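Annex B, item 7. Sequence and structure tokens for protein A, then protein B.
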Amino acid sequence: GYGNAIHHVLRHVAETAQATGKVPDAETLASLIDEEFYLPFANKPAFERMYQAANRRVDRYVGEYSSDLERVWATERPFELHLDDGVVMGRADIILDRENGVDGSLVIVDYKLANDPIRDERYRLQLAIYTAAARGEGLTVEGAYLHELGDGSRNTVDISQDTVGDAVAAVNTSLAGIRQGDYPARPETKKCQHCDFKQICRHVTGT
């Protein structure tokens, strides 16, 4: 639940900035983390360790990206993309306005904690789908970023028309497969190594 707890705290930080029109100061941040950081199943040593890590990550984000908090357009914004075989739904962590100083020019930012190339690819697909849904609503999305909470880096995600179109096509294909009950095995060494079913799966490879 650590990742969810960090996301929850950052949402409240952004909403506080949006409501007050200013970046939360150190005292406000400390109070927000105390009130909103919640790990009900962690023992005391684990909670303390993750609580301190959360403080560092939130402080770094606010210190290095305080300008984000001055142009919050929405947090946890829901999106729906209606496709041939179903509806894909999701929530963007934070959407910023005034990209390059232009009102109504939006960027979507997704927070992430783990450094995992497979997950990164999933996040990029997710941001492309959010972009497609947002543009379908008539919103102007000019950029998308994956924000690494661990080291504070921010990576640009390609949301060009071609890339977004490819993402929509890929999800459309997946939905069609789900509706048809088509689940072909796609074993990969890295995936198989971390799969819960590797001991009984006849398709497992590289373990």
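Protein B:
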Amino acid sequence: LIYICQSLSDDPQIAQRDNLYKVGYTRGSMDWRLHKAHESPTYLMAEVKVIEVFECFNLNTQKFEALIHRFFDAARLRIDVFDEEGVRHEPREWFEVPLPQIEKAIQLLLNGDIVNYRYDLNTQQIVVK
């Protein structure tokens, strides 16, 4: 499963950001994947709301996730998150991108056309290369 989720954090450095989404994958259930989100730096030490889930067949979901992450790299959230022991983590799967653009990128990747496009950080749009 490829999923898109949104943080429910009340931390101002997270809560005040518009269009902040995590794009991830799991081989298990979403309930299992997210059951301890509030304890995980991957989920910004907060509960999350699942926005969308995409079932993927005959697809290497790890490669799919890596391609989406590379596509949106310029919009990657760059903050430090500290776990319960005070250890610093740098979450890598959160992006400040409008949801329709993430959905569009997923569809472009699924149909193989993503190689003809790039994400323009200034306009927050997917554009032809």
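Comment on protein B: Strands lie at 2-7, 20-25, 48-54, 81-82, 88-89, 94-96, 117-120, 125-128.
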